Amino acid sequence: MKRKLTLLCAALITGAGFAYAATTQTVTFTVTVPSVLDLTTTSNAVAINLTASSYAGSDAITTEALAAHQLAVRSNRAWVVSAKSNTTSFAFTPAITGDTRTKPSTDLSVRKAAGAYQSLTTTNFTLATGTAGGVTNVGNTFAVDYKVATDIKLDPPGSYALDVVYTLTAP
After folding, report:
1. What is the pTM of this model?
2. For residue 12, which phi and psi values (nearest 5 degrees)?
3. What CATH superfamily classification does 37-169 receive?
């Protein structure tokens, strides 16, 4: 029995020195993340309806539309929202046929809520800047205020419309 045990131990000891053949493979995982720049608005229209009594205190007034809508940015890098008017003058539909006066785009000003108003021209100006993140990221969703100047000596009765263009870019 002792001899069987000795042979068994010898067989186990000599077998322990053998290495099993092994191979390895490396797999490279790649993901491509695109540039994300997404701008949305809660409304594509803002309106101010003045009445004759709006001019009771003055012939020239400025009227604000505070928090008229919100802009929201989703981006995976720093961003800039710029604003400009699409044309140099408001489109005008006169209440009295034949009146052809124009109202300059600079009579409309815009700002990021609580910021400084800037008159609109056909040249972009920086309205807001921010960092990467979704719409819930602090500063990536903000209200927009408008202020329009009107004057009964310069602005005949009718309807005035101006397209405001907001552009999201990465600096």
Report:
1. 0.82
2. -70, -40
3. Fimbrial-type adhesion domain (2.60.40.1090)
The pLDDT of residue 6 is: 52
Asked if the model's pLDDT at residue 143 lies above 90, the reply is yes
Q: Which residues pair with 146 in a beta bridge?
A: 65, 110
DSSP 8-class letter at 131: -
Q: Could you give the CA distance from residue 84 to residue 46 in angstroms, rounded to a whole number? A: 15
| CA pair distance 90, 159, nearest whole angstrom | 9
Give the H or E element holding residue 49: none
Alpha-carbon dihedral sign for residues 84, 123, 121, 112: positive
For residue 100, the model assigns a pLDDT of 85
**Helices then strands (H, E): number in the chain?**
1, 10
Residue ranges covered by each domain of the chain? 37-169
Would you say residue 5 has pLDDT above 90? no
Sheet holding 164-169, edge to edge: 125-130, 79-85, 164-169
**Residue 74 above 70 pLDDT?**
yes
Pair 51, 61: CB distance under 8 Å: no
Tell me which DSSP letter residue 121 carries. Answer: -
